[in-house]
Design brief:
By secondary structure, the protein is an alpha/beta fold. The chain is built from 11 helices and 12 strands. Strands 1, 2, 3, 4, 10, 11 and 12 form a 7-stranded mixed beta sheet that branches. The protein has a 5-stranded mixed beta sheet with strand order 7-6-8-5-9, with helices on both faces. Strand 1 (30-34), helix 2 (41-57) and strand 2 form a beta-alpha-beta unit. The termini are far apart.
Length: 318
């Protein structure tokens, strides 16, 4: 009788264990690896996203910065982590779709499952306020006449805009590379270069104070801070650059976990505080699904490959 009771108890326990639901994800903190240094636009935007996602997920989202190699060290690190949803990385179109054409990188887009895109950078062609170049047409004309137009750029999207402008106009622009946006702006203010292509947060204050002038938006949209300034396309040049901030996880992360992260990112982007913070940074708070962002990465990779080849940009040493 006792044996029968014991067997019945064991069977009931086994049944309960089988019927018990699996622990819901997440049941611990999530790590977000940012591929640029602390304090920059990507870092600040990503930390604000992490803060908003924490509220939605009910778990800490801890940010770690892994900068270096033009934004490629962070994504490379993420590909080596467990595909369990607790290891999420920030990827930009530069790090995932442009830099592979310019340097040897230990990953491809196929090493990730894309979760979402959560922000869009804007770029603009900027000169000093006392520059003789009052429009992009003036800048192009000077470059075509061989006046030696040097421009400053800290990364691939920035320099591609000027190289592409040169390609479609027959003008020749000479690049001077800098480590950061702030160094690039300092070089322009110091008369070391004639023009730069830069993000709003680096230049808006100088434009508003009358030290710099925005000639055109290099992005597909105008800058809302200066709605009268046209895009390069509106000015008659078939040139635009677009860069989105995205989230990716190691390939093989469970679909249900990716869906939960995607939903959380969407909720975060819709929050009032994030929207306001991004506008102050000059980052447009926009959202794309993981599927749509993956398609954008593929399309940008092909497009940038053609643009880089046309510009005859050399490969970089790691």
């Amino acid at each position: 009788m006792k044996a029968a009771s014991l067997l019945a108890a064991l069977a009931a326990a086994a049944l309960c264990a089988t019927a018990a639901p699996a622990m819901a994800w997440p049941d611990k903190e999530v790590t977000l690896t940012v591929n640029y240094g602390a304090g920059g636009n990507t870092d600040v935007a990503s930390r604000e996203l992490a803060r908003a996602m924490e509220i939605d997920l009910g778990r800490s989202v801890v940010v770690f910065n892994r900068p270096g190699a033009l934004g490629t060290i962070g994504p490379a690190y993420v590909t080596k982590q467990a595909a369990d949803g607790y290891n999420v990385g920030v990827v930009t179109l530069s790090s995932i779709a442009i830099m592979p054409h310019l340097m040897t990188i230990p990953y491809t887009a196929r090493d990730f499952d894309f979760v979402a895109a959560y922000g869009r950078y804007r770029y603009g062609v900027v000169v000093r306020a006392d520059s003789p170049y009052k429009s992009v047409a003036d800048l192009v004309a000077a470059a075509r006449q061989g006046q030696g137009i040097f421009f400053g750029a800290p990364s691939a999207p920035n320099n591609l805009a000027m190289f592409d402008l040169g390609r479609v106009t027959g003008a020749k622009f000479e690049q001077v590379s800098y480590k950061s946006g702030s160094e690039t702006v300092s070089a322009l203010l110091g008369n070391q270069v004639e023009a730069i292509v830069q993000n709003p947060s680096d230049v808006i204050g100088y434009i508003q104070s009358g030290r710099l002038r925005l000639l055109a938006s290099a992005s597909p949209i105008r800058w809302p801070e200066f709605p009268d300034v046209p895009t390069l396309k509106e000015a008659g040049y078939d040139v635009e650059i677009d860069s989105w901030l995205g989230l990716a996880v190691p390939k093989g992360t469970p679909e249900s976990v990716r869906a939960r992260l995607e939903q959380s990112a969407r909720t975060a982007v819709a929050s009032d505080r994030l929207q306001q913070t991004y506008k102050q940074l000059g980052v447009d708070p926009v959202w794309l699904s993981g599927k749509d962002y993956a398609a954008m990465v593929d399309a940008t990779y092909e497009q940038m490959g053609r643009a880089i080849k046309a510009a005859n940009l050399p490969r970089m040493s790691n």
